[in-house]
């Protein structure tokens, strides 16, 4: 059975989940999400085994301007929004300029500067693939659709700036892999990697670094890891560890005794004890396949 609703709380003793009835309001669309209008009514679902796979939300670290002025890399619709923004930037950069003075050229250059914040697996992968797709886009479409963006003395080539607050990319990975990622980015095209570049705030069209440096850009993609959803941080606080993720063993069962051996967690919301698995789709998919097979073959724990 499928119910469209919002999970509100778990009662491990009674083996129930409290759910708020909800409907999707398709007329209220925000920058990155759809409004979920809870009707106010609740119902309770019993369970024999419960799998928590609510994912996570982008971690903004409370930095001002991130929610309002950046694009996240978390869900499928984020990709469409980013693509639309890229087209908007090329469109704006293609407008004719009455005076090709330095200020006008700098404004066009800023529109074609794309910042990626976060040097983890998702940020690095996006930067490499983005540069490849951007090159194809420019070679095949831009010259025809936006000829003014690359004409005359204002000829510019888009660039990508990858900002990482720490001193290295892919901090949780092996040194050789970190070195390979850095070489790959440098060879991918017009990409500048800035290590030790911590963001202080994000303004419309500007990333402000700690120390005061300002980077003008047309797009900011925020990929600095994930944080817990409200359901986990508040409704399952008893089962979480310091980073807000649900602690599970190598069988994906919650280690907290309150779970009574009947609750499992997978994906970005879970942390396997003693592991360093990154919060990426491949890990979540493998965990889902493993747990589905285990429950189907071994059954529900006693």
UniProtKB/TrEMBL annotation:
MF term (GO), any: NADH dehydrogenase activity
Family per similarity comment: Belongs to the NADH dehydrogenase family.
Record's protein name: FAD/NAD(P)-binding domain-containing protein
Gene Ontology CC terms, in alphabetical order: mitochondrion
Biological source species: Rhodosorus marinus
Protein's UniProt keywords contain Nucleus: no
Record domain FAD/NAD(P)-binding: where: 7-288
Keywords tagged on the record: FAD, Flavoprotein, NAD, Oxidoreductase
Name of a matching Pfam family: Pyr_redox_2
Coiled-coil ranges from the UniProt annotation: none
């Amino acid at each position: 059975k499928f119910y469209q609703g919002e999970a509100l709380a778990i009662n491990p003793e009674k083996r129930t989940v409290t759910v708020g009835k909800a409907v999707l309001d398709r007329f209220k669309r925000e920058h990155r999400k759809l409004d979920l209008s809870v009707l106010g009514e609740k119902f309770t679902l019993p369970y024999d085994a419960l799998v928590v796979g609510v994912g996570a939300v982008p971690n903004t670290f409370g930095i001002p301007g991130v929610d309002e002025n950046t694009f996240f890399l978390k869900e499928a619709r984020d990709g469409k929004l980013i693509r639309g923004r890229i087209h908007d930037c090329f469109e704006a950069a293609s407008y004719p300029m009455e005076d090709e003075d330095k200020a006008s050229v700098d404004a066009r250059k800023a529109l074609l500067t794309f910042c990626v914040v976060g040097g983890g697996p998702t940020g690095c992968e996006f930067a490499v693939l983005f540069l490849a797709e951007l090159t194809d886009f420019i070679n095949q479409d831009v010259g025809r659709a936006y000829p003014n963006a690359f004409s005359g003395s204002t000829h510019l080539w888009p660039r990508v700036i990858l900002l990482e607050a720490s001193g290295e990319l892919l901090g949780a990975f092996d040194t050789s892999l970190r070195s390979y990622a850095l070489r790959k980015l440098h060879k991918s095209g017009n990409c500048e990697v800035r290590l030790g570049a911590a963001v202080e705030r994000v303004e419309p069209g500007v990333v402000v670094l700690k120390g005061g440096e300002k980077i003008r850009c047309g797009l900011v993609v925020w990929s600095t890891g994930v944080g817990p959803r409200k359901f986990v941080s508040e409704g399952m606080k008893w089962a979480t560890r310091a980073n807000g993720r649900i602690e599970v063993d190598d069988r994906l069962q919650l280690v907290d005794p309150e779970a009574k051996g009947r609750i499992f967690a997978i994906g970005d919301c879970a942390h396997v004890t003693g592991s360093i698995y990154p919060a990426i789709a491949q890990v979540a998919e493998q965990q889902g396949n493993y747990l589905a097979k285990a429950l189907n073959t071994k059954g529900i724990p006693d």
